[in-house]
Amino acid sequence: MTMRLTISFLAAIAVAVLLGVAYVPWLRKIKAGQEIKEIGPNWHKSKAGTPTMGGVLFIAAVTAVVLTLGFPYLKEGDRGALFVLVFSLFYGAIGFLDDYEKLKKKQNLGLSAKAKFFLQLAVAVALLYLLRLEGYLTTSLYVPFWNVTVRLPEWLYFVLAAFIIVGTVNAVNITDGLDGLASSVSIPVFVCYTAIAYCWNAGSLAVFAAGLTGGLFGFLVYNFYPAKCFMGDTGSLFLGGAVCGMAFALDMPLILVPLGIVFIFETLSDIIQVGYFKLTHGKRFFKMAPFHHHLEMGGWLGHKWTEKQIVALFSSISLVFSVVAFFSCIGRYD
User: Can you give the residue ranges of every domain in the chain?
Assistant: First the structure.
């Protein structure tokens, strides 16, 4: 399996990089440029017109890897990777509709919040039902660190699970606000998933995680500062679907707490900002939310962090907590 995972990783890098050679100029040619929020930092306005929907690069890479190098596992009945891939593709499709609406309207407003929520909820429920039907998912909630499981009523588990999925997908989407940020933060997450799936002999899921890790590295060639393209909602929603899809396919959604610590904190900063603004009738807790913008604008310490510094900080935090997450659950099947 080690050789297969290595090839999956390298092949995905190659697919993403080579596809980008033609795809990124094509996006520029059709003027698929990102519109920048007017309320964002002033210096972000220079990014206007940068091609969006670049997430297609890592989506294509991991899809190619799962359907080729992962095929022997699929043929043997190990279809975990296929379920996660299809689930993520549905979220990517929702993101594509959102990106398309933004490009059509020439503004940073796509699908309505209500439409996105119900579409995301429907996909979450469908995945949970499928994983339960295929035996990948139980209603026993595995608790990392303590290495115990807590039996929940089925209805409660599904309500909690749907909330976790929709929340995680949107948390990844919120984090995608700087060049290379969401992809750099996600790489340690999928390295951790690869290691866990490898140790538990979950072959197809290991191929998926290794392939997406490689795809993200390949995408960073075009997305690292200064970005030649953005992943768009097409990429960020696919990525969010993959982050939580892997957790549920491995039947341990609570692993998302340490693994997704950066995504969680970014989302909490948004919630705190909105709540504080309403409670104080116009005052702000952060200079701007989510938190990466607060650092950009010199919040608290007065130092204005560069995009590269923020990406390095957040990806380092993600790396540390991914290591913690790995050791928190590795004894599950000892």
Answer: 2-329
Nearest-angstrom CA–CA distance, 309 and 106: 31
Report whether pLDDT(46) > 70: no
DSSP 146-174: TTEEEE--HHHHHHHHHHHHHHHHHHHHH
The Cα 210–Cα 201 span in angstroms is: 14
Helices (H), 250-306: 256-259, 261-279, 291-296
Tell me if residue 140 falls in helix, strand or coil: strand
Distance, CA of 3 to CA of 62 (rounded, Å):
17
Instruction: Give per-residue pLDDT as tens, 286-314.
Output: 888 898 888 888 877 778 889 999 999 99
**Residue 40 to residue 307: CA distance in whole angstroms:** 14
Q: What is the pLDDT of residues 70-98, one digit of tens each?
A: 999 988 988 899 999 999 999 999 999 98
Residues in the chain: 334
Both tokens of residue 136? Answer: 């990948």
User: DSSP readout, 162-218?
Assistant: HHHHHHHHHHHHHH--STTHHHHHHHHHHHHHHHHHHHTT-HHHHHHHHHHHHHHHH
Q: Cβ contacts of residue 298 below 8 Å, gap of 6+?
A: 287, 304, 305
Beta bridge partners of 51: 33
The verdict on pTM exceeding 0.70 is yes
DSSP, collapsed to helix, strand or coil, labels residue 51 as strand
What is the spatial distance between Cα 92 and Cα 100, in angstroms, rounded to a whole number?
12
**Tens digits of residue pLDDT in 94-149:** 999 988 887 776 655 667 788 888 899 999 998 888 888 888 888 888 999 888 89
Here the tokens at position 246 are 């892997």
